[in-house]
Amino acid sequence: MTLAKEQPSALNFECETGNYHTFCPISCVAWLYQKIEDSFFLVIGTKTCGYFLQNAMGVMIFAEPRYAMAELEEGDISAKLNDYEELKRLCLQIKRDRNPSVIVWIGTCTTEIIKMDLEGLGPRLEAEIGIPIVTARANGLDYAFTQGEDTVLAAMAHKCPTVAPKQEAEKKERNAVSSLLNFGRKKEEVTQEESEYKDHTPLVLFGSLPDPVVTNLTLELKKQGVKVSGWLPSKRFTELPVIEQGYYTAGVNPFLSRTATTLMRRRKTKLIGAPFPIGPDGTRAWIEKICSVLEIEPQGLEEREAKIWASLEDYIKLIRSKSVFFMGDNLLEISLARFLIRCGMSCHEIGIPYMDKRYQKAELDLLEKTCNEMGVAIPTIVEKPDNYNQIQRIYDLKPDLVITGMAHANPLEARGINTKWSVEFTFAQIHGFTNARDILELATRPLRRNNNLKELGWDKLVQEEANV
Amino acid sequence: MKLAYWMYAGPAHIGTLRIASSFKNVHAIMHAPLGDDYFNVMRSMLERERDFTPVTASIVDRNVLARGSQEKVIDNITRKDKEENPDLIVLTPTCTSSILQEDLENFVTRASMDTKGDVLLADVNHYRYNELQAADRTLHQTVKFYLDKAKKKDELPTDKTEIPSVNIIGISTLGFHNQHDCTELKRLMAELGIAVNEVIPDGASVHNLKNLPRAWFNLVPYRELGMMTAEYLKSEFDMPYVDITPMGVVETARCIRKIQQVINAQGAEVDYEKYINNQTLYVSQAAWFSRSIDCQNLTGKKAVVFGDNTHAVAMTKILAREMGIHVVLAGTYCKYDSDWFREQVSEYCDEVLISEDNAEIGDAIARHEPSAIFGTQMERHVGKRLDIPCGVIAAPIHIQNFPIGYKPFMGYEGTNQIADLVYNSFTLGMEDHLLEIFGGHDTKEVITKGISAGSDLSWDKEATGELGKIPGFVRGKVKRNTEKFARERGFAVITLEVMYAAKESVGA
């Protein structure tokens, strides 16, 4: 690995046993099927996978989801049944019932162990049934939680068109009448719009975000004259962005390292390594880095950031000079810790499932810089943490806030330790200037709630345990 | 391969974990990949558990795949033994370890040489058993292990308790209203003058398992969990068991009479008839409710029941026998025990459905158009879509089915709770009539989507208006029946005449 040659960082990295709680990466289907509206996700696995999805996704399961299990039976495991024929039968049924524009196969632990050749079967079946098939191995053997999205987007990057297709001509044809009617006006509008952008190499952003956040970040860049040529993923599979050799790409989430690698190596794009647009500091750094690579002088960012910080003061008051502990389960930890430290918190430990020091380089640098500027100790980053050890450390350190999974949240609360359920950060809108408030809304909620209860003396709700 | 959106019973390891984490000071170690410890989230969330769920994973990752677990599982077992001093560690296989076919038994033998506590390998195969069967097996396995151990050490008490006593078998964590049922059963036993010897597995210590044979008999309230243990105790120690679920007035009485018979056979000389009579007529409100005019309005209303064996059987009997409700369909997802189900309900319902396929159940409900459904959370959502009320009577369940308030389904207080549930699920009688008389308070004109596929028939203005006057909760049914009638007779447009003709012919 070339990583060893990197200049020594003041950040301290540790690696524990990997005995920690997180969601299985197949959970990515829950937000990706909603994001990609014409998709269907088929998880090829066992009852265990199905049980997890059904329970973790709660109410969503009833909204006629565009995902299902291909539940493997004993005959599939012992290869008594032919994988290809079985998958064909199920995919034809899906085609008949839902007619999606793409079927995404999610490979699981079981398909890995029995070595089901999904990547090989996919193209054959795709040709036979006429629906694109994308194969992503989002399994618990290799990945944690949000990395599931990474595997899906990396697989989808291969399906992005190489050259701008005749799509435009097609569109025009379809709207022949309306374009005839509006011809003059439309054209004027378009040229005017184009002139708002600076001339730069096309930029494609990657990472699945809710549509309002996409609009928000796109407009934020537009203010600097940066045009976003496309997003991976887009609202529909049929609208995947064109990616040509030499395009610039930038990630919006810290867990997308495979996607970044694929875009660089396979699609020959240039990756803009920037901190992630989480918190006003991150958003500003993200925009600045993109602008600097595209050789654009950013305008008015400093004022914008200052204004956002001012508007957050009521929340920041609550957490300033308090301490936070990340147990680690969704890979957003570095960015969130950096933002909370900028808000005046101190952080002793950042647990994280997996740390790609190359992809997160700029974010790590910003974290270090932030710690120095705020005058707090630089946190230890614990990769593959051990939850049991972490809980002992939490008992010792008594942090004011622990960001953790649901398995530990209630037991910690019962022991008088404030917790915030980490999964909420994955589903809430946390990107860009405008959503910084939402992060603090989440992070301060336990403190605000417990402030309300403070007078009651109901801190510790478990009896002293016998064995200490 | 099977295309599945939803499953009723979970995978086998969930059953094992439910047993392990029900006991006090027992730790389960799953041989599983990252993310399979979702059980901890469910327990922490649904049960609002204050303590850490005693379940950890020995992670299966790429290295394990390549070289086998080697020392990893053993290290994890001995480590947990030191950290938490559990009495017992249960090594739990998952679907992944079922295929890897590592010699887990060997790991257990080797680890137990270095541990202070006992170590067991749960004997459950992912591809053969579901959650419920696995729970039943694991409980049996644990009980047998500790009784054998006591026998070997000659620590097995041989005497019975002085006064009649009972073991309550099958109360477990994440079970549907189990905690409340347990309290109610204990109260019932107290009123009958029966001492509770042991309750397993919930809250029990494995050290006390050797005391099980001291009880005069065993009570197995749930069909799904505890039967294997009860059978074992019967064959090994000649302990009789009562497996009548005390749910509903009639069944509770039957259960008590059976208990009376069992303990009198051992020389107790009790007569519970007066107690039963008093409870039935004056204490429980359920018998009086059946007689009251409220319940009259429910007579002949159609209901569908679906759930696990215990609850679906009990509800079917209560609805049909105690409330005069017409159960058009009773079903269970406990396929492996379907003969028992059929035998129990066949005289109380029109049709029996044994299925794990929720689409099949949804379709059956749509076909029958009952006035109310009693099912799992899944049926509740089917009901929402079809605009039919649903009372939840069995797992799978959501957090709202773990109420903080006292809501048993068993015993005499249980009969009250069930009466409320049933009554509140049907549209209230008077409201029903008033809506019919005054044409409903629904002023929406257009009828939007029904559950059935798009209609090819058109309704003229008068007929549409008339349809609008029909109360909302039966409108869909009237619409469908009228359209069915029109289609059969070849009418293209539905007029008022067609509507009335349809009503006369099919009673739409």
Automatic annotation (TrEMBL), chain A:
Textual note on the cofactor: Binds 1 [4Fe-4S] cluster per heterodimer. The cluster is bound at the heterodimer interface by residues from both subunits.
An MF annotation (GO) of this entry: ATP binding
Entry's EC annotation: 1.3.7.7
Entry keyword annotation includes ATP-binding: yes
Biological or metabolic pathway of the protein: Porphyrin-containing compound metabolism; chlorophyll biosynthesis (light-independent)
Alphabetized InterPro entries for the sequence: LIPOR_BchN/ChlN, Nase/OxRdtase_comp1, Protochl_reductN
Cofactor(s) required, per the database record: [4Fe-4S] cluster
Segments forming domain Nitrogenase/oxidoreductase component: 24-441
GO terms of biological process kind: light-independent chlorophyll biosynthetic process; photosynthesis, dark reaction
Coiled-coil zones: none
Enzyme class: oxidoreductase
Reactions catalysed according to its record: chlorophyllide a + oxidized 2[4Fe-4S]-[ferredoxin] + 2 ADP + 2 phosphate = protochlorophyllide a + reduced 2[4Fe-4S]-[ferredoxin] + 2 ATP + 2 H2O
Stated role: Component of the dark-operative protochlorophyllide reductase (DPOR) that uses Mg-ATP and reduced ferredoxin to reduce ring D of protochlorophyllide (Pchlide) to form chlorophyllide a (Chlide). This reaction is light-independent. The NB-protein (ChlN-ChlB) is the catalytic component of the complex.
Subunit structure: Protochlorophyllide reductase is composed of three subunits; ChlL, ChlN and ChlB. Forms a heterotetramer of two ChlB and two ChlN subunits.
Protein name: Light-independent protochlorophyllide reductase subunit N
Species: Waterburya agarophytonicola KI4
Gene: chlN
TrEMBL record, chain B:
Keywords: 4Fe-4S, ATP-binding, Chlorophyll biosynthesis, Iron, Iron-sulfur, Metal-binding, Nucleotide-binding, Oxidoreductase, Photosynthesis
Enzymatic reactions: chlorophyllide a + oxidized 2[4Fe-4S]-[ferredoxin] + 2 ADP + 2 phosphate = protochlorophyllide a + reduced 2[4Fe-4S]-[ferredoxin] + 2 ATP + 2 H2O
Nitrogenase/oxidoreductase component domain location: 12-426
InterPro entries: ChlB/BchB/BchZ, LI-POR_suB-like_C, Nase/OxRdtase_comp1, P-CP_red_C, Protochl_reductB, Protochlorophyllide_Rdtase
Active site location: D294 (proton donor)
One Pfam family linked to the record: Oxidored_nitro
Biological process, per Gene Ontology: light-independent chlorophyll biosynthetic process; photosynthesis, dark reaction
Protein's pathway: Porphyrin-containing compound metabolism; bacteriochlorophyll biosynthesis; Porphyrin-containing compound metabolism; chlorophyll biosynthesis (light-independent)
Free-text comment on the cofactor: Binds 1 [4Fe-4S] cluster per heterodimer. The cluster is bound at the heterodimer interface by residues from both subunits.
Binding site residues for substrate: G429, M430
Cofactor: [4Fe-4S] cluster
Domain of life according to the entry: Bacteria
Top EC class for this record: oxidoreductase
Domain Light-independent protochlorophyllide reductase subunit B-like C-terminal: start-end pairs: 459-503
GO molecular function, a single term: ATP binding
Signal peptide start and end residues: none
Residues annotated for [4Fe-4S] cluster binding in this entry: D36
NCBIfam families per the UniProt record, alphabetical: DPOR_BchB
Family: Belongs to the ChlB/BchB/BchZ family.
Name the UniProt record assigns to this protein: Light-independent protochlorophyllide reductase subunit B
Organism encoding this protein: Waterburya agarophytonicola KI4
Upper lineage: Bacteria, Bacillati, Cyanobacteriota, Cyanophyceae, Pleurocapsales
